Structure formats: structure tokens, C-alpha cells
Amino acid sequence: MSMNRDVYVIGVGMHRFGKHDVSRRDMHYAAGLAALEDANISFRDVGTLYSGYIGGNMLDGVSFAKDLGLTGLPVVHVENASATGSSAFREAVMAVAGGSSEVAMAVAFDGRLGNMAAAGGPRRPTMDTSLLPAAFFAFWAVRRMHDNGTTVETFAKIAAKNWNHARFNKFAERQAENEITPEMVLAAPMVAYPHTAMMACGAGAGAAAAIVATREVAERLANSRPLVKVIASQMQSERYQPGHVFLGAIVGPSESTRMTANLAYEEAGVGPEDLDLVHVHDAFPIEELMYYELLGICPDGGGDRLVAEGATTIGGRIPFSTDGGLIGRGHPGGPTGLAQIWDVTQQLRGESGARQVEGARIGLAHMMGAGSVCVVHILKREA
Amino acid sequence: MKVPVEEGYFRIPEDPAAPPVLLGSFSPAAKTYFWPRRKRCPITLEPVEDCELSTDGVIYSWTFVLLPWLGSMEADAGGGFGACQVDLPEGVRIQAPLDGKMGDWSIGQKVRLVTRTVGKDDAGNELCAIAFRLTGEGR
User: Fold this and answer.
1) Helices A285-294 and A152-166: angle between axes, nearest 10 degrees
2) Which of A126, A197, A244 lies nearest to residue B67, judging by beta carbons?
3) Of A3, A357, B3, B31, which has the maximum CB count within 10 A?
4) Host domain of residue A76
């Protein structure tokens, strides 16, 4: 992608993720309003709105936007499975980069168990739904254990880390009172061998929003806060790989992450060694482990060592999932990608409190969307 | 009578002892097989030919699923089920349920395609998907 104009994140907002009964409409409003207040702008200043949600009523996006105001702005529904929020954000970035809007907003939301379940979902069994996500990522894990000697304790350490990061995020679904240990993770009920329930992402409700703008607007609104620039926005769908699974695969080849990240690094002019924090699609810890390598944070096969050294914990060399990730913060399909942008932006501004990565300057947000797509954004703090 | 839950993925031979037959595609340009059928070669974008694929393969990976839904603490009512990814000799990898119980499987074991009943249609036919079963042969 070539950005004709520089794009900056000027506002972020969230509604807590979790198994609560707040309506999707109310969560949408809360997250959207929080982002507007964070940016210190009126909804009247927003040029285009991208509204992300999965499987809900086709009217929801434009209908819920009325709660923020009737300004006549274009409203577009974006849906891309788990990458819905990331895709909505990317569309907003494109709108500003391409010159159609000075300010663009992305908001995404989902209810408990996803809107698909509320809408009825498929009833008659089909060939494509005979297996479920829990099985798919367990295939990755069992194969990894076979090929690399990865242990279940490594998976448990990653999950425990993300649960503990979530303890410092008031918007996270899972907020344990006390520190979570790998032993506690391993003692939870099995979901799909070798993954236990505490290794599986939370799947509650939630909403998140982000607002992007031109440099001129960002500078005018900065109010002494550092600017956060979007230095890469890349999306790839699948390319054929040996062993390609076409039917029932939740996401495509793991190589999709390497390809998309390399494009993002090239666009941003930075490499994995320049990153200060990373968010990934950690629906299960095997994903986070593999993404350490596929994002180039360590050599192939080196992920287990990163875990053993504690390098991906806040305070370590390269913290991952600093808000708890999908495992701790939770993963309502629609807004997750925007929750990542919310955390990266706050980290780069130095506003993350107890979960702050000291001196964070560059953060990467990676999402997979079933089907599948991979989306990578890289954000950078400017002094 | 057994019928596929969806047409176009596999056929069920008249011989009840015969395994189901996977309906795939072959790309002459890429010299690559695919399942399920492709409308065109995803690599070269050239036309593909219909073909039938092997019924035997080896386990690439496996799992045993107890709590199917993400974030759920509700156990599968059936007490769990095996699942696997299988590599066929043509270079095709497919995933499906796997007969047996935890502890039965390991990577590299030989498996054969079978049908698994998943429901009934309005005419009373058994709707079938595919699954795999260990052949009992060595690796």
C-alpha cells in the first residue's frame, strides 16, 4: 500500500469485554463516545465511519451510528471475521491516506457468543462446519510438539502471562484477583488436547473504537500528547502453500503472517528488532508461540526459548499481548482488532499505567480473520 | 440409504464395505491436486480437471476435542471426539473427525476414510460426512 498522506491515531475508546448483558447498541455508543472524547473532537468532525460487527442485522451499523449524531457522514459496514475491527481500522486509515476524509472513525462491537448465534446460525450440518476452531489450533499445537519438542508447560506459561497482563486492564474480560500460574492453567478442563479452557480465548461481548486523521489535524489536537503515526497497514488473503487446507480451516497457512508482516516492515521501514510491543491473534497459546517466529521476533524454532526467558512478558525484551490479548482481554470477533489499536496507542503515549511498556516507541498489531485474512498494523510514537 | 450431507465433496459407493471417495481437482499446469474441487487452479489460475483422490493417508496432526466452543466451559454432550489432519499420497491435506479415543493416535499413523452419520433428511436418508479410522497397519 502507498499512503498519499500520513495518518495518525487521534482517539481510542473501549467498552469492557466480557460476559455481561450490555446491549450491542450501548457498547457501540460507549466506545465511540470514549474515542471522540479521547480525540477531543465532535462526531460532526468525523468524515467517514466504518462500523464493524459479525453476522448481525444488516442495519445495525448505520442505525447505531445515529446515537452519535445525524451528520450525513458516509457509514459503511465492515465484516471480516476476527479481523473485522482491524479491517475497519484499515479502511479508516485508507480514507485519510487517500484524501477522502480528514478524519475517519472505526468502531466495532459484538454481543455475547457473537451476533451469529443471535441470528440463528447454521442449523443443518455442513462439510465446512464439521470441525471447530478449538480443533484447528490444537492441530497446530500437536504438530509443534512433535516437530519441536514444545511442551504443554510452554503453552501454559504463555496463557498465564496473558491472564496476568489482563489483570492490569480494566476493560479485559478476565481479571483474576490473584496471579495466575502455569499450574492453574494446566489444571483447567481440557478444551482440545493439549489446550485447556484457561488457554482458550475469552469469547464475551464488547466494543472498541479508534479515530484517525491527517498530521495537520493530529498536531492541532495533540495538546502536548505525543503523536501516534500509522506507519504500516497491510492485509493479505491466503496464498497457496504445500499442505494447504481448503475446507474447515479456521485460518490459512501460518505463513500468511510472515508474508503480511514482511510487507508491513517494508512499508514502515522498520524491522522486528525495532518493535517495543506486539499484539497477535492469540486465540490459543500455540498461535502466540508461532507468531514470535513468523513475525521475525526470533528465529524459527526459537519461540520456546523466548517463553522460558520471560522475554514476552511486560518488563521483558519484547512484550506480547500487553492488555491480556485474546486469552485475557477477550475476543468478541468484531472489536478485537480495535482493542489492539486502543492498547498500542495508549502504550505509545505512555498512558498504560501498571501495564506500561517503558519507553515504547513502536508497536505492532496482528490479526487473523477466519476464511482467511491476515492484517498487520505498525504504529509509531512521534515526539 | 446413506447420502452425503452436501453434494460435490465425496461420493458413497454402492458397496457398503467400500470407503467413500473424495472428489478433487487436478491442475495440469501446476501438477497439483486439491480437495475439495476448485473452479480453477489457485496457483496458476488455469483450468483444473475433476479427479478422485486416495482413501488412505497418514495423520499429520490430531487432537481430542472436549469443549468445542471458544470460551465455553460446557463439555461436548457426546463426551468428546477425535479429529485429525491427514496427508493423502497426492499431497492433499484434509481435516475430519477421527474414530477412536485419546491415546489411540500418533502422527504418521495410517488411516482410511469412512462415513460418519450426522443426521437425517426429510426422506429419512442418513446424512453422512467423512471421518477417518486407523487402518491398524504400521507407520
Assistant:
1) 100
2) A197
3) A357
4) 7-113+203-221
